[in-house]
Design goal:
Length: 452
């Protein structure tokens, strides 16, 4: 090799080396979205009997958000809020038939990740519209039944597919993997079959010898206190309750099955974490766990979600970033919302957040003292179906108080959460709360406009 050629080669090597100096590799990201996992169904959250060792460990090694909420408690609308970083009032997905427009889809966080160099994949539930964006993803596998013909449960099937995906991943590009579980949702009823839980057989012995505590508001008086337009068997949350929680025996049977499915989800997380370690990619893979909404296990004489009660709108939220030793191991009481996950994921990937997103970067929220990031209240909305099946509702929610408005009936509810965390008494007409009611009415009008 001539001296000139040797010098040129050396200079090229130096340029390439310096151009990469200080640049950290973008992290892999796994976003796990379960269904109907209420926030209290977690050992680390204080539940004394539910077995969730893997999620407990994830929380202890990551960041757990103690006040995480959804802005609409219905599968499709909430999942759309995850992907867009927007309130339902802006993304417009109010039912199970509406798809994202192409323009809106391109500004969802997975497509922004793809533009930023990620390989993006989805396994499990997409849950939005009739025409999923299969062609935009590098890997797509969403049609996964509750049971295969051989009897494989959906939770186990999704985990198996996720493990296979990780084993076979060869690209130098970072990956984003969305895992959408249907557990711990019940199987919806049909004309021929009532709603039921489908639990993996190995979990059936769990919780068999304990009595699940009954919620305070399971007593008939709390259902009886609702106004006539709410207190009807046409209310889907009440009709579902009839078949699941209307007796002590039914409550014990179905509450145990619910928590068994939660433990199945926990084991799924454990399997995925173990696979990351086996492959040696655990130190550069972020794992996020949450749910599309909570779930009422008989509270207020109801089953399901939809309404802005605490059981329905609170969800577990854990962000584990092995690179962020400073924040890991923390729990925060600051309010986090489903609309925050898109912006947070993009910031973790060091990508720009689209201006149309309404959420915030949660990790900046907990690491800074910026007042604009410390929410004091948020807007809740539910529009699907309407009265009497599922009443439309709006709410202003703060950590210490909640104002609910049912627009179809011009009816107001106020719960003093500080003194009444189980939402037992509507104090909207109590003289001592008149000033707060006036203030919250104004907040509702303002928030409703601001989220559009």
């Amino acid at each position: 090799m001539s001296k000139t050629r040797f010098v040129i080669t050396g200079l090229l090597f130096l340029v390439v080396t310096l151009s990469g100096f200080g640049q950290e590799k973008q992290p892999n990201i796994i976003f796990i979205i379960s269904d109907s996992h209420r926030s209290e169904a977690l050992g680390v959250a204080g539940n004394s009997f539910v077995q969730t060792p893997h999620l407990n460990q994830l929380a202890q090694e990551g960041v757990r958000f103690e006040n995480a909420y959804v802005t609409t408690a219905i599968c499709t609308g909430s999942r759309a809020s995850f992907f867009t970083g927007q309130y339902m009032s802006r993304h417009g997905i109010e039912d199970f038939a509406t798809d994202f427009s192409e323009e809106a889809l391109l500004e969802t966080y997975p497509l922004v990740l793809k533009k930023g160099g990620y390989k993006i994949s989805l396994i499990g539930n997409w849950g939005i519209g009739k025409n999923p964006p299969v062609s935009h993803f590098d890997h797509w596998d969403s049609k996964i039944p509750w049971r295969t013909t051989s009897g494989l449960h959906q939770t186990d099937n999704i985990v198996q597919k996720a493990v296979n995906y990780l084993d076979k991943y060869q690209s130098e590009a970072p990956f984003f993997l969305s895992l959408g579980f249907s557990a711990a949702h019940e199987i919806d009823p049909t004309k021929d079959k009532p709603a039921t839980y489908d639990v993996q057989e190995r979990y059936l012995p769990l919780y068999e010898n304990i009595e699940i505590p009954f919620p305070e508001t399971v007593a008939p008086e709390y259902w009886d206190n609702f106004p006539d337009f709410f207190r009807t068997d046409k209310n889907i949350a009440r009709s579902r309750w009839q078949g699941f929680f209307s007796s002590a025996e039914l409550f014990q049977k179905n509450a145990k099955n619910y928590y068994r499915m939660v433990t199945g989800l926990d084991d799924a997380v454990g399997t995925i974490m173990q696979k990351l370690k086996e492959l040696g990619i655990d130190e550069n893979t972020i794992v996020i766990y949450t749910s599309d909404h909570g779930f009422s296990l008989g509270e207020h004489g109801l089953m399901g979600k939809w309404y802005p009660f605490e059981a329905s709108i609170r969800v577990p939220l854990i962000i584990y970033d092995p690179r962020n030793l400073e924040s890991n191991g923390k729990a925060t009481e600051k309010i986090a919302l489903n609309i925050d996950l898109g912006p947070t994921i993009l910031k973790l990937a060091d990508l720009e957040i689209p201006k149309c997103m309404q959420g915030i970067d949660l990790l900046e929220m907990i690491s800074s003292n910026k007042k604009r990031l410390d929410r004091k209240e948020f807007f809740y909305e539910h529009e699907f179906l309407g009265s009497p099946q599922l009443l439309k509702s709006q709410a202003v929610i703060r950590k210490d108080i909640k104002y609910i408005y049912y627009p179809e009936h011009d009816y107001e509810v106020l719960y003093d959460l500080k003194n009444d965390p189980n939402e037992t008494v509507n104090v909207v007409n109590s003289p001592g709360y008149a000033r707060k009611v006036k203030n919250l009415r104004t907040s509702l009008r303002n928030l409703k406009q601001s989220v559009k």
